[in-house]
Write a structure and sequence with these properties.
Order of helices and strands: HEEEHEHEHHEEEHEHEHEEHHEHH
Distance between the termini: 55 Å
Helix content: 40-55%
Shape: globular
Strand order of the largest sheet: 9-8-10-7-11-13
Length: about 325
Protein backbone atom coordinates (compact mmCIF):
# COMPACT_ATOMS: atom_id res chain seq x y z
CA UNK A 1 0.00 0.00 0.00
CA UNK A 2 2.80 2.45 0.84
CA UNK A 3 4.20 2.17 -2.70
CA UNK A 4 0.95 3.58 -4.09
CA UNK A 5 1.11 6.84 -2.15
CA UNK A 6 3.45 8.80 -4.50
CA UNK A 7 1.36 7.73 -7.52
CA UNK A 8 -1.90 8.75 -5.84
CA UNK A 9 -0.33 12.08 -4.84
CA UNK A 10 0.74 12.83 -8.42
CA UNK A 11 -2.68 11.86 -9.83
CA UNK A 12 -4.48 14.11 -7.35
CA UNK A 13 -2.13 16.97 -8.17
CA UNK A 14 -3.19 16.88 -11.82
CA UNK A 15 -6.81 17.81 -11.14
CA UNK A 16 -8.12 21.30 -10.36
CA UNK A 17 -9.31 21.80 -6.81
CA UNK A 18 -11.90 24.12 -5.36
CA UNK A 19 -10.97 25.91 -2.16
CA UNK A 20 -11.44 29.11 -0.21
CA UNK A 21 -9.40 32.05 -1.45
CA UNK A 22 -7.36 34.59 0.53
CA UNK A 23 -10.42 36.80 0.96
CA UNK A 24 -12.69 33.91 1.86
CA UNK A 25 -14.27 33.62 -1.59
CA UNK A 26 -14.45 30.34 -3.49
CA UNK A 27 -11.62 29.81 -5.99
CA UNK A 28 -11.58 27.26 -8.77
CA UNK A 29 -7.91 26.30 -8.58
CA UNK A 30 -5.13 26.41 -6.00
CA UNK A 31 -1.56 26.01 -7.29
CA UNK A 32 1.63 25.50 -5.30
CA UNK A 33 4.84 27.54 -5.54
CA UNK A 34 7.98 26.36 -3.71
CA UNK A 35 11.19 28.23 -2.96
CA UNK A 36 14.10 27.43 -0.65
CA UNK A 37 14.73 31.07 0.25
CA UNK A 38 13.40 32.74 3.42
CA UNK A 39 11.13 35.76 3.85
CA UNK A 40 12.88 38.94 2.79
CA UNK A 41 14.98 37.37 0.06
CA UNK A 42 14.26 38.96 -3.36
CA UNK A 43 13.25 35.57 -4.79
CA UNK A 44 10.84 34.96 -1.91
CA UNK A 45 9.30 38.41 -2.23
CA UNK A 46 8.95 37.94 -5.99
CA UNK A 47 7.14 34.64 -5.34
CA UNK A 48 4.59 36.42 -3.17
CA UNK A 49 4.27 39.18 -5.76
CA UNK A 50 3.63 36.55 -8.45
CA UNK A 51 0.90 34.99 -6.31
CA UNK A 52 -0.82 38.35 -5.84
CA UNK A 53 -0.63 39.08 -9.58
CA UNK A 54 -2.15 35.70 -10.44
CA UNK A 55 -4.99 36.22 -7.96
CA UNK A 56 -5.89 39.68 -9.25
CA UNK A 57 -5.34 38.86 -12.94
CA UNK A 58 -7.65 35.83 -12.82
CA UNK A 59 -10.37 37.66 -10.87
CA UNK A 60 -9.70 35.45 -7.87
CA UNK A 61 -10.38 32.21 -9.75
CA UNK A 62 -6.80 30.96 -9.27
CA UNK A 63 -4.76 31.22 -6.10
CA UNK A 64 -1.08 30.42 -5.68
CA UNK A 65 0.06 29.13 -2.29
CA UNK A 66 3.70 30.04 -1.66
CA UNK A 67 5.93 27.75 0.41
CA UNK A 68 9.24 29.32 1.43
CA UNK A 69 12.40 28.33 3.30
CA UNK A 70 12.66 24.90 1.71
CA UNK A 71 9.41 23.75 3.30
CA UNK A 72 8.68 21.43 0.37
CA UNK A 73 12.27 20.28 -0.11
CA UNK A 74 15.61 21.27 -1.58
CA UNK A 75 15.89 22.82 -5.05
CA UNK A 76 16.96 19.52 -6.59
CA UNK A 77 14.00 17.63 -5.10
CA UNK A 78 11.59 20.43 -6.00
CA UNK A 79 12.78 20.27 -9.61
CA UNK A 80 11.61 16.67 -9.81
CA UNK A 81 8.32 17.61 -8.16
CA UNK A 82 7.79 20.29 -10.80
CA UNK A 83 8.68 17.79 -13.53
CA UNK A 84 6.02 15.39 -12.26
CA UNK A 85 3.41 17.98 -11.35
CA UNK A 86 3.44 17.74 -7.55
CA UNK A 87 4.60 21.38 -7.38
CA UNK A 88 3.32 23.86 -9.97
CA UNK A 89 5.91 26.67 -9.82
CA UNK A 90 9.39 27.18 -8.47
CA UNK A 91 12.45 29.35 -8.89
CA UNK A 92 15.66 27.49 -9.73
CA UNK A 93 19.27 28.52 -9.69
CA UNK A 94 20.97 27.49 -12.92
CA UNK A 95 23.46 25.65 -10.73
CA UNK A 96 20.82 23.26 -9.39
CA UNK A 97 19.39 22.26 -12.77
CA UNK A 98 20.08 18.64 -13.78
CA UNK A 99 23.00 17.85 -16.11
CA UNK A 100 20.70 16.92 -18.99
CA UNK A 101 19.62 20.55 -19.39
CA UNK A 102 22.29 21.09 -22.01
CA UNK A 103 23.01 24.70 -22.87
CA UNK A 104 21.84 26.07 -19.51
CA UNK A 105 25.13 24.84 -18.07
CA UNK A 106 27.05 27.25 -20.28
CA UNK A 107 25.44 30.18 -18.42
CA UNK A 108 27.55 29.22 -15.39
CA UNK A 109 30.84 29.63 -17.22
CA UNK A 110 33.15 31.63 -14.89
CA UNK A 111 33.72 35.32 -15.63
CA UNK A 112 31.35 35.04 -18.60
CA UNK A 113 29.56 38.38 -18.45
CA UNK A 114 31.23 41.77 -18.61
CA UNK A 115 28.70 43.20 -16.14
CA UNK A 116 25.06 43.00 -15.09
CA UNK A 117 23.88 44.96 -18.14
CA UNK A 118 25.66 42.50 -20.43
CA UNK A 119 23.90 39.55 -18.80
CA UNK A 120 20.47 41.10 -19.22
CA UNK A 121 21.15 42.03 -22.84
CA UNK A 122 21.83 38.33 -23.38
CA UNK A 123 18.90 36.93 -21.40
CA UNK A 124 16.33 39.47 -22.58
CA UNK A 125 17.44 38.91 -26.18
CA UNK A 126 17.30 36.02 -28.60
CA UNK A 127 19.58 33.78 -26.54
CA UNK A 128 17.46 34.04 -23.41
CA UNK A 129 14.21 33.53 -25.29
CA UNK A 130 15.60 30.45 -27.03
CA UNK A 131 16.69 28.92 -23.74
CA UNK A 132 13.30 29.56 -22.12
CA UNK A 133 11.53 27.98 -25.09
CA UNK A 134 13.87 24.98 -25.12
CA UNK A 135 13.07 24.14 -21.48
CA UNK A 136 10.05 22.08 -22.53
CA UNK A 137 12.46 19.45 -23.84
CA UNK A 138 13.42 18.77 -20.22
CA UNK A 139 9.93 18.45 -18.78
CA UNK A 140 9.38 21.98 -17.44
CA UNK A 141 8.25 25.35 -18.79
CA UNK A 142 10.68 28.17 -18.00
CA UNK A 143 8.71 31.40 -17.81
CA UNK A 144 11.08 34.18 -16.77
CA UNK A 145 14.61 35.06 -15.72
CA UNK A 146 15.47 36.11 -12.16
CA UNK A 147 18.63 37.82 -10.95
CA UNK A 148 20.93 36.15 -8.44
CA UNK A 149 23.77 38.63 -8.60
CA UNK A 150 27.43 37.80 -8.40
CA UNK A 151 28.69 34.76 -6.56
CA UNK A 152 31.79 35.16 -4.42
CA UNK A 153 33.75 33.15 -1.86
CA UNK A 154 33.45 33.39 1.91
CA UNK A 155 35.52 31.56 4.48
CA UNK A 156 35.98 31.06 8.20
CA UNK A 157 39.65 32.06 7.93
CA UNK A 158 40.91 34.93 5.80
CA UNK A 159 42.21 34.16 2.31
CA UNK A 160 45.13 36.36 1.28
CA UNK A 161 46.66 34.69 -1.77
CA UNK A 162 46.09 31.88 -4.25
CA UNK A 163 48.01 29.30 -2.23
CA UNK A 164 45.60 29.78 0.69
CA UNK A 165 42.90 27.92 -1.26
CA UNK A 166 44.94 24.73 -1.30
CA UNK A 167 43.31 22.05 0.81
CA UNK A 168 40.34 24.17 1.88
CA UNK A 169 36.95 22.46 1.89
CA UNK A 170 34.41 24.66 0.11
CA UNK A 171 30.72 23.98 -0.31
CA UNK A 172 29.41 24.40 -3.84
CA UNK A 173 25.98 23.86 -5.34
CA UNK A 174 24.96 20.30 -6.09
CA UNK A 175 26.48 20.40 -9.54
CA UNK A 176 29.53 18.52 -10.82
CA UNK A 177 30.35 21.23 -13.36
CA UNK A 178 30.60 23.89 -10.63
CA UNK A 179 32.63 21.52 -8.46
CA UNK A 180 35.10 21.05 -11.34
CA UNK A 181 35.46 24.83 -11.69
CA UNK A 182 36.46 25.17 -8.05
CA UNK A 183 38.77 22.21 -8.08
CA UNK A 184 40.94 24.17 -10.56
CA UNK A 185 41.99 26.46 -7.68
CA UNK A 186 42.99 23.55 -5.45
CA UNK A 187 40.06 23.34 -3.06
CA UNK A 188 38.21 20.23 -1.97
CA UNK A 189 34.56 20.68 -2.89
CA UNK A 190 31.51 19.28 -1.14
CA UNK A 191 28.04 19.36 -2.64
CA UNK A 192 25.47 19.70 0.11
CA UNK A 193 22.00 21.32 0.06
CA UNK A 194 21.78 25.05 0.73
CA UNK A 195 19.82 24.43 3.93
CA UNK A 196 22.67 22.35 5.38
CA UNK A 197 25.46 24.88 4.88
CA UNK A 198 24.95 26.84 8.11
CA UNK A 199 25.43 23.81 10.36
CA UNK A 200 28.39 22.64 8.28
CA UNK A 201 30.08 26.03 8.78
CA UNK A 202 29.14 26.17 12.45
CA UNK A 203 30.65 22.75 13.14
CA UNK A 204 33.75 23.42 10.99
CA UNK A 205 32.94 20.57 8.62
CA UNK A 206 33.65 23.00 5.78
CA UNK A 207 36.02 25.97 5.56
CA UNK A 208 33.72 28.13 3.49
CA UNK A 209 31.24 28.37 0.65
CA UNK A 210 30.37 30.60 -2.29
CA UNK A 211 27.19 32.53 -2.88
CA UNK A 212 25.75 35.99 -3.37
CA UNK A 213 25.59 38.57 -0.58
CA UNK A 214 21.82 38.41 0.20
CA UNK A 215 21.96 34.61 0.55
CA UNK A 216 25.16 34.86 2.62
CA UNK A 217 23.34 37.04 5.14
CA UNK A 218 19.79 35.66 5.08
CA UNK A 219 21.00 32.08 5.54
CA UNK A 220 23.09 33.18 8.52
CA UNK A 221 26.39 32.11 6.94
CA UNK A 222 27.91 35.48 7.82
CA UNK A 223 27.71 34.53 11.49
CA UNK A 224 30.20 31.69 10.95
CA UNK A 225 32.27 32.74 7.95
CA UNK A 226 33.29 36.35 8.52
CA UNK A 227 35.60 36.76 5.53
CA UNK A 228 33.88 37.52 2.23
CA UNK A 229 36.16 37.78 -0.79
CA UNK A 230 34.39 39.62 -3.62
CA UNK A 231 35.82 37.28 -6.24
CA UNK A 232 32.84 37.75 -8.59
CA UNK A 233 33.76 34.49 -10.25
CA UNK A 234 30.28 33.76 -11.52
CA UNK A 235 27.09 35.66 -12.31
CA UNK A 236 24.29 33.10 -12.33
CA UNK A 237 20.76 33.92 -13.47
CA UNK A 238 17.80 31.91 -12.25
CA UNK A 239 14.55 30.77 -13.85
CA UNK A 240 10.95 30.80 -12.72
CA UNK A 241 9.48 27.55 -14.02
CA UNK A 242 6.04 25.99 -14.28
CA UNK A 243 5.09 22.33 -14.48
CA UNK A 244 3.58 21.08 -17.72
CA UNK A 245 0.73 19.59 -15.72
CA UNK A 246 -0.13 23.06 -14.41
CA UNK A 247 -1.01 24.11 -17.97
CA UNK A 248 -3.77 21.51 -18.07
CA UNK A 249 -5.07 22.53 -14.66
CA UNK A 250 -5.10 26.23 -15.59
CA UNK A 251 -6.71 25.55 -18.98
CA UNK A 252 -9.52 23.64 -17.25
CA UNK A 253 -10.44 26.87 -15.48
CA UNK A 254 -9.92 29.16 -18.49
CA UNK A 255 -7.53 28.52 -21.41
CA UNK A 256 -6.77 32.25 -21.63
CA UNK A 257 -5.32 32.16 -18.13
CA UNK A 258 -2.24 30.27 -19.34
CA UNK A 259 -0.96 33.38 -21.14
CA UNK A 260 -2.14 35.56 -18.26
CA UNK A 261 -0.02 33.60 -15.81
CA UNK A 262 2.96 33.68 -18.15
CA UNK A 263 2.73 37.47 -18.14
CA UNK A 264 2.46 37.46 -14.33
CA UNK A 265 5.70 35.46 -14.27
CA UNK A 266 7.42 37.94 -16.56
CA UNK A 267 6.32 40.83 -14.36
CA UNK A 268 7.49 39.07 -11.20
CA UNK A 269 10.88 38.54 -12.84
CA UNK A 270 11.23 42.26 -13.50
CA UNK A 271 10.14 42.96 -9.92
CA UNK A 272 12.72 40.53 -8.54
CA UNK A 273 15.51 42.20 -10.51
CA UNK A 274 14.60 45.55 -8.99
CA UNK A 275 14.56 44.06 -5.49
CA UNK A 276 17.90 42.41 -6.11
CA UNK A 277 19.71 45.64 -6.88
CA UNK A 278 18.28 47.22 -3.73
CA UNK A 279 19.06 44.21 -1.54
CA UNK A 280 22.78 43.77 -2.24
CA UNK A 281 23.86 46.98 -0.55
CA UNK A 282 21.36 46.50 2.28
CA UNK A 283 22.58 43.01 3.21
CA UNK A 284 26.21 43.93 2.82
CA UNK A 285 25.70 46.64 5.43
CA UNK A 286 24.14 44.12 7.82
CA UNK A 287 27.21 41.90 7.45
CA UNK A 288 29.59 44.85 7.91
CA UNK A 289 27.76 45.87 11.08
CA UNK A 290 28.22 42.31 12.35
CA UNK A 291 32.00 42.56 11.88
CA UNK A 292 32.38 40.76 8.57
CA UNK A 293 35.32 41.68 6.37
CA UNK A 294 34.70 42.32 2.67
CA UNK A 295 37.76 42.40 0.43
CA UNK A 296 38.45 42.45 -3.29
CA UNK A 297 41.22 40.17 -4.56
CA UNK A 298 44.26 42.11 -5.72
CA UNK A 299 45.09 42.15 -9.43
CA UNK A 300 47.45 39.17 -9.16
CA UNK A 301 44.97 36.98 -7.29
CA UNK A 302 42.15 38.04 -9.60
CA UNK A 303 44.23 37.03 -12.64
CA UNK A 304 45.12 33.70 -11.03
CA UNK A 305 41.47 32.93 -10.34
CA UNK A 306 40.49 33.85 -13.89
CA UNK A 307 43.29 31.83 -15.48
CA UNK A 308 42.54 28.75 -13.39
CA UNK A 309 38.76 28.77 -13.63
CA UNK A 310 38.62 29.36 -17.37
CA UNK A 311 40.51 26.16 -18.14
CA UNK A 312 37.31 24.11 -18.05
CA UNK A 313 36.35 24.35 -21.73
CA UNK A 314 37.04 20.63 -22.09
CA UNK A 315 33.98 19.99 -19.87
CA UNK A 316 31.67 21.65 -22.39
CA UNK A 317 30.32 20.02 -25.51
CA UNK A 318 30.48 21.79 -28.86
CA UNK A 319 27.02 23.34 -28.51
CA UNK A 320 27.86 24.73 -25.07
CA UNK A 321 31.18 26.16 -26.27
CA UNK A 322 29.37 27.87 -29.12
CA UNK A 323 26.90 29.42 -26.68
CA UNK A 324 29.72 30.75 -24.49
CA UNK A 325 31.27 32.36 -27.54
CA UNK A 326 27.91 33.76 -28.64
CA UNK A 327 27.38 35.33 -25.22
CA UNK A 328 30.86 36.84 -25.19
CA UNK A 329 30.18 38.42 -28.57
CA UNK A 330 26.81 39.88 -27.57
Amino acid sequence: MRRLLPVVFIILALFPSCSRGRDGESVKLVLRYADNQPEGHPAAEAAKYFASLVHSSTDGEIDVEVYLNGELGSETSIFEQVRFGGVDFSRFSIGTLPPDMGEYRALMYPFLYRDREHMWSVLDGDIGKRLLDDSVEYGIIALAWFDAGLRSLYTIEQIDDFSDFRGKTIRVQENDFIASIFETIGVRTVQIPYGSVYSALQMNRIDGAENNIPSYVLAGHYECAKYYMISRHMRTPEILAMSMQAVDKISAVNPEYVDVIKECARQSGLYERQLWVESEEYYMQIALDAGCVFAYPDKELEAQLYDAMTTIDYLLDEKERQLVEEIRNT
